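Deliverable D5.2: sample structural annotation.
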Amino acid sequence: MQARWGTHGDHSIIVLSPWSVREAFDIAVKAVNYAERFRTPVILLTDEIVGHLRENVELPAEVEIYPRRAPKISRAEGYQPYAPDEDLVPNVANFGEGYHIHVTGLIHDETGFPSGSPKITREAIKRMHDKISRAEDEIIEVHKEFMDDAEFAVVSFGGTARTAYEAVLNARKRGIKVGFVRLITIFPFADKIIRELSKNLRGLIVAELNFGQLVNEVERAVAGNCPVKLCAKYDMTIFEPEEIEQSIDELVAEVNGQ
């Protein structure tokens, strides 16, 4: 729930998940940029599989860093550190640059001080949701392959997606029209993308190395367009491609009434 809602409060944050060493680097840079731009926590959601990878990578000589935005008005002009800009993100001054800034983990007004007002709380929570949702098309990133002719698809993320990709390749070699969908952005969730893909599918598998967490989001997004099958594993071992292939075969048989 912390990856979904951030703190003890109820506000959207950004969660990104890499599946390779190079992507872990690239997404770490992206996470910093998103944190600067949207002034929100960004979680780099990796796992043991990716954490233990050993891969040769060529890193870029330079990376683009989002410039921290400075206040547009001075203290004398009535600067409020948490007054939102046009994109609903405030331009908070850096510490030590002549501005007084109050920092708290509580819901606060534009001065930064808690007010206890239901109206201010409601407006603050809505703004924190809206600043992310209005930029979803830019934030949400999904890696898709073999979807042009797919009748089925496997959805996964992180290190498990590497195994799922191998399983999809093997299934296609056997003539099963199955596609591959990897969620790079976990939250905000790719509702529109998953919903549109599911309209053309006969069934969808969610492969995840737990008791079943992402599957709930996928089922919600699919909204009954096609059956959703969970392929879960939670015995301290990683997936083998054959295990996900077996789930593909089972889904195909179930849909075909075999």
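Annotation notes: The mean pLDDT is 93. Residues 21-38 form the longest helix (18 residues).
The annotation will be released with the project's public dataset once the embargo ends.
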